[in-house]
UniProtKB/TrEMBL annotation, chain A:
Domain spans labelled PPM-type phosphatase: 17-236
SUPFAM superfamilies: PP2C-like
Annotated protein name in UniProt: Protein phosphatase 2C
Lineage: Bacteria, Pseudomonadati, Bacteroidota, Cytophagia, Cytophagales
InterPro entries named in the record: PPM-type-like_dom_sf, PPM-type_phosphatase-like_dom
Organism expressing this protein natively: Raineya orbicola
Automatic annotation (TrEMBL), chain B:
UniProt keyword list: Secreted, Signal
Superkingdom as given in the UniProt entry: Bacteria
Pfam families: VWA_4
A GO molecular function held by the record: protein serine/threonine kinase activity
InterPro entries with a match to the protein in the record: HMCN1-like_VWA (IPR056861), Thr-specific_kinase-like (IPR052969), VWF_A (IPR002035), vWFA_dom_sf (IPR036465)
Protein name (database record): von Willebrand factor type A domain
Main location: secreted
VWFA domain residues: 9-133
Organism: Raineya orbicola
Protein localization: Secreted
GO cellular component: cytoplasm
Coiled-coil annotated residue ranges, if any: none
Length: 313, 224
């Protein structure tokens, strides 16, 4: 397994994305990656902690990641009830945190502002080893609340596994243009749902959790995969660390927001093997992106395989 | 942000009836500084506003104030037309209105139907309303509306007004409604049931703490 994390703040010290969760238990073949993006609009309430002031959004994303990591550590390696435990721990953890912070409630009346609101999206995984590495099976359980995403990158391309919780039924391209409000997020009121989906993969995969700073400011959803592969296949990129730096630069150059991404490779013996496995896909994707087709036409073609179609457990 | 442009439209609805006399100067001061404060807030978030426009609706009561019931400015492009905007606000005098309630819902309906910018990659459409009074139900004197009552533009009842807010007139993701209004008909219903609204329950914002004001500005600036 290879692990890569990206994190950058638009304004130093004010980043509403938490540093991503990324824990791997090599011995048991299990792990978790997750990201959280505090909702700056809904979570604008300032809280004084010591001599510093933090927004509810800032505190919420950190808390969500901390709880996700703690829950993984508590449950690992048996992850059968992970999602239920995580939901319970989030409910309790956020209630305890707000009780600690909030000794006087604001007079504002609104459904727009929530206490400690954040997205959370991630995946726990378990490698079932076969007789050979090629016979490995990868069990995953994706979880999400909000519009941060979990993707799987396979030899055939990138797919979004999580679903965006939006107030409107928009696909990934439509939402780039319309920027619909989020319909569900983790918060201290407890009125949230942690969605989840179990899938099984019979081939090497890359699991990716990302906040909207990584994909929400690109011309089309294709470009997220394009940046992943274009940096991976750049001639000068020959190590995971170099890929990490190139990817961060690529996303930072486009993003209007904080960035948080965690990525884990499952079933690839080396960085070179990952490159080899994805080169054909990169070539065909590049051809599509630089074709004469309009962004809408490119999306229509890309969309056919974009939404995850793995074997659901 | 590279490549994306922000267009922000603000409509300020100010109750200009007689009962507002003790606080009208403070409300006008708040109205004049709102766009400055929002601009500062957005700059601090590294969000550059490409075009900011502001419009003012001073409202009273169609049933007693005749032609003075609704004074509506065009959109002023800021900062270029700042002095026109300031002059319009400064000319507002708290007068008339008769007894409570007032035509706050009519002002809100007209504000919702403003000529919102369709330009820019990202938009924010904000209505801010200050009042110390409850509102006439929209059905009030349905059969005998005053001659200058803009019947064609005003929904027949509160449900229709709610539909107008929920509909396509304003961009669903972009719209925000800030109410500095008492806990009275119909403001409480709006705050409890309409999407994307924030109410500070008081007489036209009296007693608003700095922390709550900052929260409101942040809620708008952060979500653009």
């Amino acid at each position: 397994m290879m692990l890569l994390t990206l994190w950058a703040e638009k304004i130093a010290g004010k980043g509403e994305d938490a540093f991503p969760a990324s824990l791997i238990d090599e011995e048991n073949g299990t792990g978790i990656i997750a990201v959280a993006d505090g909702l700056g609009g809904a979570g604008s309430t300032p809280y004084e902690i010591g001599e510093k002031v933090f927004s509810g959004a800032y505190l919420a994303s950190r808390l969500a990641i901390q709880i996700a990591e703690q829950t993984f550590v508590e449950e690992n390696p048996d992850l059968e009830n992970f999602i239920q435990k995580l939901q319970n721990n989030l409910l309790l953890g956020f209630q305890l945190k707000i009780a600690q912070l909030d000794d006087r409630r604001s007079k504002l009346r609104t459904r727009l502002i929530k206490r400690l609101p954040t997205t959370l999206a991630g995946v726990v995984f378990k490698v079932q080893e076969g007789a050979t590495m090629a016979e490995n099976v990868y069990q995953t359980e994706v979880f999400w609340a909000g519009d941060s995403r979990v993707y799987v990158l396979k030899k055939s391309g990138l797919q979004q596994i999580s679903q965006d919780n939006l107030t409107q039924d928009l696909d990934a391209f439509e939402n780039l243009l319309q920027d619909a409000p989020i319909s569900n997020c983790i918060n201290a009121e407890g009125d949230f749902q942690l969605f989840s989906k179990k899938s099984i993969f019979n081939e090497p995969i890359v699991l990716i959790a990302a906040t909207d700073g990584c994909f929400g400011y690109l011309p089309t959803p294709l470009h997220f995969e394009y940046y992943l592969l274009a940096t991976l296949h750049h001639l000068q990129i020959c190590t995971l660390e170099m890929w990490q730096q190139a990817l961060l630069w690529a996303f930072e150059a486009n993003a209007g927001d904080d960035i948080s991404l965690a990525l884990v490779t499952l079933g690839f013996a080396s960085f070179e093997e990952l490159k080899f496995a994805t080169i054909d896909r990169f070539v065909s994707l590049k051809k599509l992106i630089f074709s004469d087709k309009t962004p809408q036409q490119q999306w229509e073609e890309y969309k056919k395989d974009y939404y995850e179609t793995a074997i659901l457990l | 942000m590279q490549g994306l442009s922000y267009h922000v439209d603000i409509v300020l609805c100010i109750d200009a009836t007689g009962s507002m006399s003790p606080i009208i100067d403070k409300v006008k001061e708040n109205a004049l500084k709102f766009y400055d404060d929002l601009s500062v807030q957005m700059r601090q978030k590294s969000k550059h506003i490409d075009k900011l426009r502001v419009k003012v609706i001073a409202f009273r009561d169609y049933y007693v104030d005749g032609d003075m019931a609704m004074q509506i400015s065009p959109f002023f492009v800021l900062p270029d037309e700042k002095s026109d905007f300031q002059n319009f606000v400064n000319r507002i005098q708290a007068d008339g209105g008769g007894d409570e309630p007032e035509n706050g819902l009519e002002a809100l309906a007209l504000a919702i139907q403003s000529e919102w910018s369709k330009e820019g990659d990202k938009r924010r459409q904000i209505i801010v309303l200050w009042t110390d009074a409850s509102t006439h139900p929209l059905e009030f004197k349905a059969e005998s509306k005053p001659q200058n009552y803009p019947t064609a533009q005003i929904p027949k009842n509160f449900d229709d007004l709610t539909d107008l807010w929920d509909g396509q007139t304003m961009n669903r993701a972009s719209k925000r409604l800030i109410l500095y209004s008492p806990d009275a008909y119909a403001w409480t219903d709006i705050a409890n049931h309409w999407e994307n609204t924030i109410q500070y329950p008081s007489k036209a914002g009296e007693g608003l703490s700095e922390i709550d004001y900052q929260t409101i500005l942040d809620a708008i600036a952060n979500s653009v």
